[in-house]
Amino acid sequence: MALINEHFLKLQNSYLFSDIAKKVNSFKVTHPKDKIIRMGIGDVTQPLAPAVIEAMHKAVDDLATTDNFHGYGPEQGYSFLIDAIIKNDYASRGVFLEPGEVFVSDGAKSDCGNIGDILRHDNSIGVLDPVYPVYIDSNVMSGRTGVLEDGKWSDVVYIPCTEANNFTPELPARRVDILYLCYPNNPTGTTLTKDELKKWVNYALANDVLIMYDSAYEAYIQDPNIPHSIYEIKGAKKVAIEFRSFSKTAGFTGVRCGYTVVPKELNGFTLGGERVQLNKLWNRRQTTKFNGTSYITQRGAEAVYSPEGKEQVKATINYYMTNAHIMKEAIQGCGLKVWGGENAPYLWIKAPKDLSSWKFFDKLLYEVNIVGTPGVGFGPSGEGYLRLTAFGDRDDTLEAMARLKKWL
Ligand SMILES: *Cc1c(COP(=O)(O)O)cnc(C)c1O
Question: What are the residue boundaries of the Aminotransferase class I/classII large domain, all occurrences included (predicted)?
């Protein structure tokens, strides 16, 4: 008899995107002539950079010859990609990593979800609220979150990010062993300055907290004072794992490639208090459960760092960030309060007149035919907010904003 992991039974079904789809479908039935503009989904829309396409074509041709055929690669990733990552994403910012500290993967979601494999089940967890749901749900699966009471897990410390603290989270009052930070933030689009991030690193150093730093949106940072990597902060290699992805950076959401940095200076502890390098454990976990990202994909990712690739990827990010700029101006022009959209492709809007997230969602859908994502879907502190994304088409973005301007 196979006994199941009963922690899975505690998981709430996430109805967020299916509830949205249901509402949109019933709107369509009653309003067949109205054109809906979707600004809810966190997926890119623009094609891959030509340099990436060319590199992937060439990699396919490599596989067609006996001389250049590639079978299993290193589980940790090919050195051509790891070297490009270290040189371009870190050394250029004064951060020096060894090749053995970078693990290429099929994306940041898998790594954020799998990292718990190397950590005990009874660590306490801290998350920003609202938050990317993977951090909490993956910990529910391994039994780290306690029981659900009024929409909150009893063993999770929620760190609110709201208008009241200007989206600058405060250090938690309760002890946490593992803390998830995501900057630039999904869903709020807000960022931390170097000084604010330093506060978190120092807190982690002083309290032996392990930080999981998700910087999937670092490529969207425009302000030179905002850190791209947590390792730009002194001491961070002793306390943090960093997750990166080519998904939002270079349109790889369908191709699948990301990487995780686990510094060799970073230790965890045995129950007996002995220090153990997390790098060794993650390497063991990956070599056992993962057989590497495809050669074709890694050649495509490498091309993101070529001179042409860099320019092309930047142009696409500028396209999305111009959308974000257009959106922010228009939304503010309507007298609504809005955050994000300056160093991230997300805009976080306060619902007018204290409407709930879902009421505001309905109003936008029925009155201006725009689909957003209700903020409450990302956590209790998201109630009263709504997320719009800047990943859309320019003409649709302009039309949506013209509708908003006429509306309010
Ligand atoms: C999109 C996203 C990722 C990237 O996930 P992939 O699996 O690499 O596509 C990671 N973290 C956050 C917060 C995201 O929004």
Answer: 35-403
